[in-house]
Amino acid sequence: MDSTTRASGGLERELGKHFALPGIRRVAALRPLAWLAMGMQDLRSNPAESLAYGVLVAILGALVWAYAGDDPQRFTASITSFFLIAPLLAAGLYEISRRQELGQSTSFGESLQGWRRSGGALAPFGLELFLFAIFWERLSAILFALSYGGHPPNLEAFFSDVFLSGAYPLFVAAYVGVGAIFAAIVFVVTAVAIPMLLDRNGDIYTAMATSFLAVTRNIPAMLVWALLIVALTALGFATLLVGLVIVFPLLGHATWHAYREMTLWPERAA
């Protein structure tokens, strides 16, 4: 047993002293591809309900684009914030997959039952994600102000003048580095947390601790999963948000299967 495995086991035992945690399964590095396949099956089984969430998110993306399209600071901060709160927006999709697993039919109204059942936990979790997004937006504004004196280039010239020109290496390194850290933190504590809240109706700290353990015990698979999420979401935006109509519900359903496969509760141990 190497030092990393011993440290991981020690951390899990320590967290287990404070939280009622499930067992965490280890999965293969390419297992996220199977999650996508299962997510697509759920989407095909519930097309109208699933795509309705995709349409709603695409509309939200269009509003973000209209609000921030001419301001690179607002635009990049808004897109990053979208990634931060997306797990919460997908709660209805997790409920569809949960009911699909139980052999139950699901209307759009029934997909909202997860909110009604677990709203006491989802609301504070959503508030924390919202505050985190606001903090990132303010920090983003500070980075832009320090780099450009409050006058960044327009969005059309932003990537060519800033990221590709080599004229602002410190800004690019700081912005990408800090943004990546923020995104990684949120990913680690939300990867399976919200599906777990819908499934178990527990507290947010147990859910975040479970998510942390699921990620740290499956780092290769979760790196692949994170890259797939970023790539597919970027594809959704690159297609002028049309792709999000399919990408968002696909990722939402797949996330449910990621949660179910990596967590092992006593009553499901057979």
In brief, what are we looking at here?
With 270 residues, the protein is mostly helical. It has helices at 3-16, 31-45, 47-68, 72-89, 91-101, 108-111, 113-148, 155-163, 169-190, 193-200, 204-216, 219-238, 244-262; strands at residues 23-24, 263-264.
Count of DSSP E strands? 2
Rounded radius of gyration (Å): 19 Å
Could you tell me the mean pLDDT? 85
Largest sheet: 2 strands, antiparallel
Can you give the helix content as a percent range?
Answer: over 70%
Number of helices: 13
- Physical arrangement of strands within the biggest beta sheet: 1-2
* N- to C-terminal distance: 27 Å
Low-confidence blocks of residues: none
Order of helices and strands: HEHHHHHHHHHHHHE
- Class per helix and strand makeup: mainly alpha
CA-based shape: globular
Strand content: under 5%
Our count of domains comes out at 1
Task: Please specify the SSE layout and strand pairing.
Elements: H1 3-16, E1 23-24, H2 31-45, H3 47-68, H4 72-89, H5 91-101, H6 108-111, H7 113-148, H8 155-163, H9 169-190, H10 193-200, H11 204-216, H12 219-238, H13 244-262, E2 263-264
Antiparallel strand pairs: 1-2
Give me some keywords for this one.
two-stranded antiparallel sheet, globular
Explain what this protein looks like in three dimensions.
Helix 2 crosses helix 3 and helix 3 crosses helix 13 (244-262). This protein has one domain (35-264). The chain is globular, with a radius of gyration of 19 Å. The protein contains 13 helices and two strands; from the N terminus they run H-E-H-H-H-H-H-H-H-H-H-H-H-H-E. It has helices spanning 3-16, 31-45, 47-68, 72-89, 91-101, 108-111, 113-148, 155-163, 169-190, 193-200, 204-216, 219-238, 244-262, and strands spanning 23-24, 263-264. It has a two-stranded antiparallel ribbon with strand order 1-2. The chain is mostly helical and 270 residues long. The longest helix has 36 residues, at 113-148.
